[in-house]
Design brief:
Layout lengths: L9 H23 L6 H8 L3 H7 L3 H26 L4 H17 L3 H10 L1 H28 L9 H15 L2 H7 L3 H16 L2 H5 L1
């Protein structure tokens, strides 16, 4: 007689269901904006009841915060992978870091930025803090390595370069300014980084 297959632990099942909800919401929120996507739409797509959805996320705002948590976890994992792969190779690390950042930002479309500005400015403040922490950590390490290898200016402290980058990102890559300039988060961030890099990369770095 074959043994009866064991059901997955209850917590594991709940975690799987929660992750499925987050992934579905992430795909719709970032593409269409979170205002135009209802919990009815998500529940129907996932084949669950609204009651089940609300058991995991008591409000749409809580789901939005979970989606952003998921996004930041994805970005941080990617940037950590790059840092481990190129600990002392400034050009390769810079290229991979910029490519990875552009790829992650490309997921976020203008409707999501619009909704953040109009309906969830407090969530965007949290988003800004976490974004600043990632920039400070990964670009800070990159600038220090660039200085060590002679590809980034040494007459400016790496900390000052990071503060300039952070200030520019905060001023340009925000819902109001992105919409006003007709940019996307990806193009706005790329423009800011290009301008900052033009000012900090040495002649040796440019040649490389």
């Amino acid at each position: 007689m074959k043994p009866t297959p064991k059901s997955p632990p209850r917590n594991q099942t709940a975690d799987t269901a929660r992750q499925q909800i987050v992934e579905a919401a992430r795909a719709h929120f970032f593409t269409h904006g979170f205002c135009s996507v209802t919990t009815d739409d998500l529940a129907e797509e996932l084949g669950i009841s609204k009651k089940t959805l609300y058991a995991h996320f008591p409000s749409k705002m809580a789901l939005l915060e979970a989606v952003l948590d998921n996004k930041f976890a994805t970005v941080e994992a990617k940037l950590n992978e790059i840092a481990r792969k190129y600990p002392h190779d400034f050009p390769a690390a810079l290229e991979e870091l910029l490519a990875g950042t552009r790829h992650e930002l490309d997921e976020i479309k203008p409707p999501f930025v619009r909704d953040m500005r109009q309906k969830a400015p407090h969530v965007f403040k949290m988003f800004e803090r976490r974004r600043a922490n990632l920039i400070e950590h990964f670009f800070g390490k990159l600038f220090v390595e660039g200085q060590r290898s002679g590809m980034v200016r040494k007459d400016l402290p790496a900390r000052v370069m990071i503060e300039i980058l952070l200030a520019a990102v905060q001023a340009i890559v925000n819902p109001t300014k992105v919409e006003e300039l007709g940019l996307t988060p990806r193009t706005a961030f790329a423009a800011v980084v290009n301008v900052v890099l033009e000012g900090v990369i040495t002649r040796k770095g440019r040649k490389t």
